Amino acid sequence: MIEGIDLSDYRILLLIFLVLSIIVFLRYLLFSGAYHWIFFVLFRKSFKKKMLFDQRLKARQTRREVLMSLYSALIFSATGLGLLLLWQYGFTQIYPNISDFPLWYLPLSVFFFLVLHDFYYYWLHKWMHSSSWMRPFHMEHHKSVNTSVFTSFSFHPLESFLQAVIVPILLMIVPMHPIALVATLMIMTFSAIINHGGVEIYPMKKGWKGLHHFIIGATHHDIHHRNSKKNFGLYFTFWDRIMKTEK
Ligand SMILES: [Zn+2]
Ligand SMILES: [Zn+2]
Predict the structure, then answer these.
(1) What are phi and psi of 27, to 5 degrees?
(2) How many angstroms is it from 234 CA to the middle of ligand 1?
(3) pLDDT digits over 153-182, tens only?
(4) Cα angle at 16 between 168 and 172, to 5 degrees?
(5) What is the pTM of this model?
(6) How far apart are CA 212 and CA 203, in angstroms?
(7) Which ligand is nearest to the CA of 196?
(8) pLDDT tens, residue by residue, 78-132
(9) DSSP 3-state of 29
């Protein structure tokens, strides 16, 4: 239960929704902008060989992506509000006292969440490509072939909802402390930015030494934006490997 906040007052709910929307949207703009500036302005020369294509932001594409991301931020915030209500009425496994579980469980809960989220996203994503009625909605995201950091949140509102709804569902299953939840949300944001950022930041060593064999990065997801029959995963490569959809 959340102490000291009256979630039965609709004005408080509206205020929380507005504050959440501003935080989510500014977080997207700030982190995406910072990532682009670091790799394509500040260290442009050092990362030139790691760039997948000419990464100059195109005004028209960026305007469309930021607008769609604003809608996504509103949907993610509405889902966040729904999560707060579920937490308030005792439907989630969120535990506010850090001592309720051993400290080593804190990072493990983040890992559990990511593995389950990855499983959900792989099958959702594969379905969005194969379903004749869902595919046009998912194609909003695929309008960006040369992706940029701002593509990271750019989805049709229906897809944003399908992506967001899994978070409260997983929190009804996986016990999580709010710190672990915030860390997970940050990983989600950064992973989306890294996958669309157009620069490969993970070591591309051959064989099993290379991190890119396990963790999805810009190269892996860039291939998906060019060949929509391959590379459906979100964080880890194993579903694409098991289902033989990896290129
Ligand atoms: Zn994408
Ligand atoms: Zn896709």
Answers:
(1) -60, -45
(2) 9
(3) 999 999 999 999 999 999 999 999 999 999
(4) 15
(5) 0.89
(6) 7
(7) 1
(8) 999 999 999 999 999 999 999 999 999 999 999 999 999 999 999 999 999 999 9
(9) helix
